[in-house]
Write a structure and sequence with these properties.
Layout: H1 2-6, H2 17-22, H3 24-34, H4 39-66, E1 90-91, E2 103-105, E3 111-112, H5 119-122, H6 133-136, H7 155-163, H8 185-193, H9 197-205, H10 211-217, H11 221-224, H12 237-250, E4 266-270, H13 274-285, E5 289-293, H14 302-306, H15 314-326, E6 330-332, H16 343-349, E7 352-355, H17 378-394, H18 397-400, E8 413-417, H19 421-432, E9 437-441
Length: 457
Amino acid sequence: SILKRERSHIQLHLQPPLCLFAGSSLVYKQIHIYHTVPRATATTMLATTSRRQVARAASAATRVMSTSSHVKGASQAGKGPIGQDGRHEIWREDIYDHDNEPKVKRRDGSYASVEKLRGFLNYERNPEPYRAPLERIMDWEELNPVEDHERHHTKVEKKIQAARCMDCGTPFCQTHQGCPVNNLIPEWNNLVYNDQWQEAIDRLHATNNFPEFTGRVCPAPCEGSCVAGLVDSPVSIKHIEYSIVDEAWNNGWITPRIPATRTGMTVAVVGSGPAGLACADELNQAGHKVTVYERADRIGGLLMYGIPNMKLEKETVDRRVNLLREEGIDFVTNADIGVNVDVDELRANNDALVLCMGSTKPRDLPVPGRELKGVHFAMEFLTANQKRLLMTKDGTLESKWEKDHFITAEGKDVIVIGGGDTGTDCLGTSMRHRCKSVTNFELMPQPPMERASNNPW
């Protein structure tokens, strides 16, 4: 309708739809600025404006080349917006201009302030990379780079990535197709873009009890359902999520929330994995007195013993558990319900009993050779390894380590059957054990490297 109204004033030579979409801002700019100008005058102004734009672009390019010391990754200029340091290249007006936000390189090579209207077109997807493979397989630290690591993204780069969220009309990322807990993803993306990090953690906590866990170990189906992924790479949602919660912890914004009133009701929660902890958190905030029972010697369940340290640092788990303690939740370890804790006693002493146990019975393969020595279930392997790491850190390895139950892959040819998350954990653990070789067998076909045509959302 805009084009019809303005046809009498400006003759627009439109390209095919795809080109029109890619250059839509230029068309809109012409319409909005010149729609009240007669055709002859408009043509002259457009021509003049075009020359001015070319001149400005040339001038900007000259400034960038002459001040390459001010530009991160300046040698990559003209080869895409990402510089040698793995971030979008930036440019500042003056060597002393560090108080204001820098100009950022766009896909077309120009430098301008970060803007969100066309962010998904102007900027490339650039999630924070993991630490280099040869660096990380030498230790058990997290894959994600710490704050002072050279690969850790700056606030500017995080704002750029948040600007790629296109504020689409139907955000499939936060529906049941994209996020099991219905995170308000477009909202906290926009808050990060506006540098409102404290408000962002409030919106993140509105739907997610433990974003520091999901931001690290969730397979991010939200990114697979991102609308921007239909025409380009999806928004780096997972990276933004754990950046928000890490920023909140670092700034002391996550503090104990003590319920103002208590209901007088008591609840026993059996199991301290992610389900049990989330359940306990919700019930405690409702005012009930909650006690969590865990069979193992540490709280966390799958978070503590099932997920390896390089995916989720156990200090991260302990930090949240300690916060829940401060909020009034009691934890009991080494409590094997039905063995050393009477279930009837639990039911009699509490108003409600919630079962949040995981399945500890593995899926077996009844095939010839299954009984041979050296064939183990994944959780036996992963749990024993994690216990050894924790005892080493606590200084109790010599006194508590059950060496006979430890499974090592050192110097061995390892085969991992199953290519899901657990299989991946076994691969990473075997490599850190210095195995001789490792091979992965997977029943399903290899998934595509990019979104398949039969996966529109």
